[in-house]
């Protein structure tokens, strides 16, 4: 499990081949005034493909990623799956007492999602806690090796994150995750909570409806009170929009990921459209710049295993008889939640309450990619959750986030 420093260095022939494929792109037709009603508009795709082919400088953005993100790889043994070479970002704070934090991304994200929060989290002024940050590149994403056997589901992703933290010398740590990062850190809490994982924070809170046996007070309250706050109403509306208008990808990726994989692996324009749609529609009017989008997409195109590997998590999770939309946060460790109004789903807050939910924050804007869209807000929430006066203060033995 030796750590090896890593720099992104895409072979020149892959860049050349990408440009050749982009030059051969065959665009579909489009209905008049379609705009976003049928998916990514044709003018946007023509612009992005042209930019990716002729104006976008991957080498410049590759160098910037290497400059901003200290990266490494190491082999991690996964029960039943052998050793996988895992890519990760690791930056230690100058504060000796900083809190070890495992940051876990989801789909269609990657390690790039930690880019904006990383320099903020490691800062250690006297008035808030600092963190040692580890952002794991999930197996099959970015520059991490992909699993080769069936059955690599959430428990295995959780095992990778946990063993990475132990290998880095963090016997106790806290976690943060959204999207699949929510599910993975949820399982880390269930599998390694209390002894190793001491607290967790999420920006994608998911809950099951309360019952008389699981949450009797919330259940009785739901019978007699139908009123929801404005934010809760928006969450319900957003969830309905997602199910009706934006969840088709989910069914395909949970059932036939290999079939989809041929298109993702062979057509850069097709992969661009598949992911760009989510970046735009799942964020909260975030002003995506073209080069910003293309850097995000290029990480998928140049990924070690290819873009098809990243979608298999949906299928494996479903075949393990697990549901992403009916998971209640575990109560065995301290929990914090940040609510962003344009997240994909929203629930009545009472459904999420538990004895170990110690921190909640409501935000006026922000969507699914909170760490990227609203880095300062997310960092502020983590600082408050683990700051002085919180129940989570000092939850990691000897690591309060402040100078000892």
From TrEMBL:
Pfam families: EHN. Transmembrane segments: none annotated. Keywords: Aromatic hydrocarbons catabolism, Hydrolase. GO terms for molecular function: epoxide hydrolase activity. The active site is at residues 179, 314, 368. One of its GO terms (biological process) is epoxide metabolic process. Residues 5-114 form the Epoxide hydrolase N-terminal domain. Belongs to the peptidase S33 family. PANTHER family: EPOXIDE HYDROLASE, EPOXIDE HYDROLASE 1-RELATED. This is Epoxide hydrolase N-terminal domain-containing protein.
């Amino acid at each position: 499990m030796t750590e090896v420093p890593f720099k992104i260095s895409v072979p020149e022939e892959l860049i050349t081949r990408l440009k050749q494929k982009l030059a051969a792109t065959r665009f579909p037709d489009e209905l008049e005034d379609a705009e976003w009603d049928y998916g990514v508009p044709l003018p946007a795709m023509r612009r992005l493909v042209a930019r990716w082919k002729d104006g976008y400088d991957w080498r410049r953005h590759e160098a910037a990623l290497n400059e901003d993100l200290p990266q490494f790889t190491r082999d991690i043994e996964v029960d039943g799956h052998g050793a996988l070479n895992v890519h990760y970002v690791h930056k230690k704070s100058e504060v000796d007492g900083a809190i070890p934090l495992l940051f876990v991304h989801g789909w269609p994200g990657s390690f790039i999602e930690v880019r904006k929060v990383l320099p903020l989290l490691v800062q250690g002024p006297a008035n808030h806690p600092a963190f040692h940050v580890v952002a794991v590149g999930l197996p099959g994403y970015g520059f991490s090796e992909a699993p080769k056997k069936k059955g690599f589901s959430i428990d295995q992703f959780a095992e990778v994150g946990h063993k990475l933290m132990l290998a880095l010398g963090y016997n106790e740590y806290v976690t943060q995750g959204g999207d699949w990062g929510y599910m993975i850190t949820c399982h880390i809490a269930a599998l390694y909570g209390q002894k190793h994982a001491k607290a967790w924070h999420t920006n994608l809170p998911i809950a099951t409806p309360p019952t008389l046996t699981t949450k009797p007070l919330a259940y009785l309250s739901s019978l007699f009170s139908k009123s929801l706050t404005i934010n809760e109403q928006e969450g319900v509306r957003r969830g309905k929009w997602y199910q009706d208008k934006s969840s088709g990808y989910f069914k395909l990726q949970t059932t036939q990921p290999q079939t989809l994989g041929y298109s993702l692996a062979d057509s850069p324009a097709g992969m661009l459209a598949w992911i760009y749609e989510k970046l735009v529609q799942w964020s909260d009017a975030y002003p995506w710049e073209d080069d910003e989008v293309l850097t995000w997409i290029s990480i998928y195109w140049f990924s070690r295993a290819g873009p098809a590997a990243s979608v298999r998590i949906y299928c494996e999770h479903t075949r393990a008889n697990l549901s992403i939309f009916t998971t209640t946060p575990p109560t065995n460790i301290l929990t914090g939640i940040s609510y962003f109004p344009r997240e994909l789903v929203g629930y009545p807050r009472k459904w999420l309450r538990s004895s170990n939910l110690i921190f909640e924050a409501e935000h006026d804007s922000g969507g699914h990619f909170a760490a990227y869209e609203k880095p300062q807000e997310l960092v502020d929430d983590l600082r408050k959750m683990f700051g002085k006066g919180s129940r989570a203060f000092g939850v990691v033995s000897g690591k309060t986030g402040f100078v000892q």
